[in-house]
Amino acid sequence: MRRCLSSLATMFENKNILVGVTGGIAAYKVPDIIRAIRKNNGNVRAVLTASAAKFVTPLTLATLTEQPVLMEMFIDESRRSTIHIDSARWADAILICPATANTMGKIAHGIADNLLTTLIMAATSPVIFCPAMNKKMVANTFYQQNLKKLQQAGYHFVDSEPGELACGEFGAGRLADKIKILARLRKVLFGNQRLVGKKVLVTAGRTEEKIDPVRYISNYSTGKMGFALAEAAWIEEAEVTLITGPTELTTVDEIKLIRVESSEQMMTAVDNALPTHDVVVMAAAVADFKPKHFQEQKIKKSTALQTFELQQTTDILKTVGEKKGEKIIVGFAIETENELSNAEKKMREKNLDFIILNNPNVLGAGFGYDTNVATILDRMGGREKLPLMSKKKLAEIIINKIVDFRKDR
Ligand code: CTP
Q1: Measured distance CA(224)–CA(250) in Å, rounded
Q2: Are residues 163 and 196 in the same domain?
Q3: Is residue 39 part of a domain?
Q4: Residues 330, 205: one domain?
Q5: What are phi and psi of 148, to 5 degrees?
Q6: How many separate domains does the chain show?
Q7: Alpha carbon 160 to chain centroid distance?
Q8: Closest ligand 1 atom, CA of 319?
């Protein structure tokens, strides 16, 4: 089931992405990035420098992109040599990944001595650099000067990360996580700066309510919907705070990520952030019950029934609704019966502008899926029933609703 739903992954919607690969060991990660773009409906052409071809084979990239890999300026001397112009013109965005100090230095100085550096000179589409190198090279004065020059010239960057480097050292210089690279690419391609200056607070994932040192009460939420919403708001240039329960997901550095475990911790984090935010989207699946008392010692099965008492958690969204003011507040409703009337009731009782209704029993809409099936209800009585779609797409639609709602007020 999950496999057939992958056809709904349309993050790149037929955009043309030129991937320039330069000669660093991180080039071994590029096939995976290209595959993710292709799986999300993006068209990819790969341009390799001669050094890059020592780290990753043209055959691998030609197979994944389903296009010939471009390496030479002059393929055939009897033909026009406009390959650099044609390639630059074709691209909606150019991703240089990994970007070596050498290629960045050349571009910063207007040197065009191979196909990639030459086509960058002719490019009018946005260019994203993903640098990767040894930490001493990162610290090098000339590299730093070149980096600044490229940043000032308006090129985009996905900064390298600290971590273990291929040379065995630890420090800055590792190629950024794939998630961050793909998110930046989406922002460059689709962002319209519609939430500039706005602060958006998103919650995501489940909470875990501790019973004793080895057990907790929780649910199956993985946080995918909340993370997709935070990213969609960031793509529109909002300043985003993401408060998440336990999850393995990660996000771009520009999103302020606050990790919590229990509903009580989430309540405190939301309460602290609330006064400074304009929009709140509560996508977290907060546990409704928690043990009345945390047991310091592991509960023995023979005594479990006598000692295990529950109490309700605080309804975080209801508390937010009581302090609504001018804020736009969006909630979710998970319903398996009387869906519309229950969702409407929740929207009213929690003082929301929108509620996103979904039923985890519907195919493709449950926790953990990359897809969702939702109906968006608004406080004016509007209802929009949406088909099965990726959570990223649904997040984009919800953020669009928020943008339009702001305009109408
Ligand atoms: N919510 C919350 N705090 C809770 C429980 C839920 O903030 N303790 C929020 C969720 O993040 C969601 C909305 O309230 O945005 C609705 O959550 P849902 O689980 O559908 O409903 P509940 O309000 O918990 O009611 P019920 O379980 O009875 O359907």
Answers
A1: 10
A2: no
A3: yes
A4: yes
A5: -60, -40
A6: 2
A7: 17
A8: 7
CA angle 155, 161, 167 (to 5 degrees): 115
Question: Distance between CA atoms of 331 and 282, rounded to whole angstroms?
Answer: 5
pTM of the model: 0.94
> Which of 252, 286, 248 lies closest to 266, judged by CA?
286
State mean pLDDT over 207-222.
96
For tokens 């229990």, the residue is 262
Question: In 123-239, which ranges are continuous DSSP H helix?
Answer: 135-139, 141-152, 178-190, 224-235
Ligand 1 pocket mutation, candidates 268, 286, 322, criterion most atoms within 8 A of CB: 286
Q: Give me 199's structure tokens.
A: 């602060």
189, 211, 243 - which closes a domain:
189
| 215: its two tokens | 């057990």
Q: What percent of the chain has pLDDT over 90?
A: 84
Distance 369 CA to ligand 1 centre (A): 20
The total of other beta-carbon atoms located within 10 Å of residue 340's CB is 14
Q: How many angstroms does the Cα of residue 401 sit away from the middle of ligand 1? A: 21
Look at residue 352 and tell me if it is in a domain: yes
Q: How far is the CA of 333 from the centre of ligand 1 (A)?
A: 7
CA angle 170, 172, 177 (to 5 degrees): 100
HSE value, Cβ hemisphere, 13 Å, CA-based, for 173:
22
Strand, coil or helix: 54 = helix
Measured CA angle at 198 (ends 194, 199), to 5 deg: 130
> Closest by alpha carbon to 210, among 286, 269, 261, 267?
261
| Residue 406 scores a pLDDT above 50 | yes
Where in the sequence is the domain holding 40, given as residue range(s)? Answer: 6-189
Structure confidence at residue 401 (pLDDT): 97
How far apart are alpha carbons 53 and 30 in whole angstroms? 12
Task: Give the residues surrounding ligand 1 with Cβ less than 6 Å away.
Answer: 263, 282, 284, 286, 288, 313, 315-317, 331-334, 346
Q: Out of 102-116, 153-167, 182-196, 260-274, which region has the weakest mean confidence (pLDDT)?
A: 153-167
CA distance 183 to 11: 9
Q: In 3D, which of 58, 57, 46, 125 has the Cα closest to residue 93? A: 125
Tokens of 185: 């690419």
